[in-house]
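Hypothesis: this fold can be encoded by more than one sequence.
Test: take the structure tokens below, design a sequence, compare later.
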């Protein structure tokens, strides 16, 4: 009888320990960075996931988008253009224009990142704004010497340990790199770093070099959160739409709506 009581006690103790550990195990799982069979970080969902997007973090203290505006030294013409952009709300992205580099990640609707190893390509799909996509070549090629400049530029990517690095050139000047209107020229060169720090979080930072517009580098960062139950949805953006009524004024106040976030 005594041995039976000891066995029951051990079983009960083990069950209690297991139940107490469940939340801890769940918490640990949420911190685990998803990896493929080769140990490579998965840039989006778990293997087999068919939905999920990355959404920028805006309203958590210390986690919102950050740029080195105070350290940026602009050329006189660039400073004049930047100042002029602060007097109106005509950002191209809110008027259905595709926007390269960091601006693509700042839409509150998020982006979908799709890695296709068989093609050695990666795609970043916009949800808001122009509802278009950006292609990143992962096959080891270099930038071409002759190409037509465009809104997304020409992007090549590679992995440095657990960080995805994307190098882009070939931008046109038809978009803003971020919401405040930092100017750039066709000589702009951008390097981006995507580091997934957990299942639900990714750190993004970029470095912009453009000697025709700036005396030094422009840098910034955005924290992204994983939303595993969301996916791309229909977003109609066209000329003569209602975007002008959905923007903000000089004081940052929303015009004709309740959200302070522009598309």
């Amino acid at each position: 009888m005594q041995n039976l009581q000891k066995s029951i006690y051990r079983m009960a103790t083990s069950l209690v320990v297991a139940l107490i550990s469940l939340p801890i195990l769940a918490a640990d799982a949420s911190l685990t960075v998803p990896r493929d069979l080769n140990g490579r970080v998965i840039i989006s969902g778990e293997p087999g996931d068919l939905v999920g997007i990355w959404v920028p973090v805006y309203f958590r203290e210390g986690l919102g988008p950050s740029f080195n505006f105070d350290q940026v030294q602009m050329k006189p013409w660039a400073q004049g253009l930047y100042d002029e952009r602060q007097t109106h709300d005509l950002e191209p992205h809110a008027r259905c224009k595709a926007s390269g580099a960091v601006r693509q990640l700042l839409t509150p609707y998020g982006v979908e990142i799709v890695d296709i190893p068989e093609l050695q390509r990666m795609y970043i799909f916009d949800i808001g704004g122009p509802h278009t996509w950006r292609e990143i070549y992962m096959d080891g090629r270099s930038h071409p010497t002759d190409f037509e400049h465009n809104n997304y530029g020409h992007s090549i990517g590679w992995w440095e340990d657990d960080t995805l690095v994307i190098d882009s050139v070939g931008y046109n000047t038809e978009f803003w790199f971020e919401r405040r209107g930092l100017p750039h020229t066709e000589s702009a060169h951008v390097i981006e770093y995507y580091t997934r720090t957990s299942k639900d979080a990714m750190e993004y930072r970029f470095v912009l070099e453009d000697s025709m517009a700036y005396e030094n580098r422009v840098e910034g960062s955005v924290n992204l959160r994983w939303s595993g139950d969301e996916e791309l949805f229909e977003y109609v953006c066209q000329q003569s739409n209602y975007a002008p009524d959905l923007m903000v004024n000089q004081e940052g106040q929303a015009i004709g709506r309740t959200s302070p976030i522009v598309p």
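The first helix runs from residue 2 to 31. The first strand starts at residue 53 and ends at 56.
Hypothesis status: open.
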